[in-house]
Input
Amino acid sequence: MSSLLSTPTTLYDAHGRPLEYLRLAVTDRCNLRCFYCMPEEGIKYLPRHEVLSYEEMLRLTSIMTRLGVRKVRLTGGEPFVRRDLVPFISRLAELPGLRDINMTTNGVLTAPHVPTLAALGVRAINLSLDTLDRQRFFDITRRDELPAVLQTLEAVLKTGIQLKINAVVMDGRNIQDLVPLAELTRELPIEVRFIEEMPFNGGSHVATAESLPWNHRRIRQHLEAHLGPLLPAPAPAGATATEYSVAGHVGRIGIIAAYSRTFCGTCNRLRLTAEGSIKTCLYDQGGLDLRALLRQGESDETIAQALAQAFYHRAANGFEAERQRPTHQLNFESMATIGG
Output
C-alpha cells in the first residue's frame, strides 16, 4: 500500500470532486432549542468520554491538511458551549497548510471572544439568525437571547472578520423577516443567506418535499418582489450558496438550496461529528468511525487510507446518499449531532 502522507496529496472522490474543506463539530451541545433543529426538551447528548478530545481533533485535522484540506469550519451544536475553545483555535491555527479557519455560531456567547478570534486569524463567521424580532426569536429558539446575538453581530463588524448571516426560511414562522434581514445588506458589508428548511430536526416535525413551500425559487421571487432584481454574482468554488448582488446594496444576498440539493456537483467537504464519525454528505448515515481508529492506536497512515476510501466512495449527491440510508426518514436526526 502506497503512503498517502509522504508527500502533499489532494484526495478526489469517484466523481472528480476534491477534498478541500472540513466542517469540524467540536460539540453536539447547544444553548438554544430551535424548533427546526431539536425538540423542546433537547436531545440526548453524548457522554463526555464519547466526544473527541481537542488533541484528537488536532491530530485528525493535521492528517486531513496533509490530504488537501485547506479550510476548517468549527461548528456544533454551539461551539462556545465547549470550554477552552479559544486555546484550541490557537493551536489549530498553527497547523501547516491550513489557510482558513471559520466558524458557525448562534452568537449567544460569542461577542466577548470576537477580538481574540480576529487576532488568531479567524477569517469568517457565520451567524445563525432567523429573525430580527425579539418575540419571534423566542418563538423559534425557545430562548430570549436576541440582544446577545445582535451584540455579536456588532462585534464582528468592528473587527473586519467576514460576516455571513444564516437564516432558515420557515413557512408560517419568519417569512415576514426575510426582507428586513435582506435589507441589512443595503448598508452593511455582509452576506445574508436564506436556507431552505431541512428535515434534520430531532423528531420535532417531519419535512418532505411536499411540505416545503419555500424552496430556493420562491425565496428568490419573494425577495425580488421587494428588493428588485437579484443579480447573479461570482461565488467561490464549492460554495453552497448561490450569491446575488442588489443594486444600491453594499452587501450580498445568498440562497442555499439545502433541501433541493442543487450544489452537490461541486461539493468539496467532509463533516467530522463530535463523536468522531465522518459524514461524506449531509444526508448520509455516516459510517467511518475515526474515534475508534484513534483509540485503537492506529497510525496516521492507516487513518489517512481509511479517509481516502470513505471520501472516494461517497455518493454522487444528497438524493443518492439519502436512498442509501437504512430509512429515508431523517427527521429523528438533529443538526446539532450532524455538525451543521
Remarks:
- The mean pLDDT is 90.
- The chain has one domain: 21-338.
- The domain at 21-338 is CATH 3.20.20.70 (TIM Barrel).
- The longest helix spans residues 146-159.
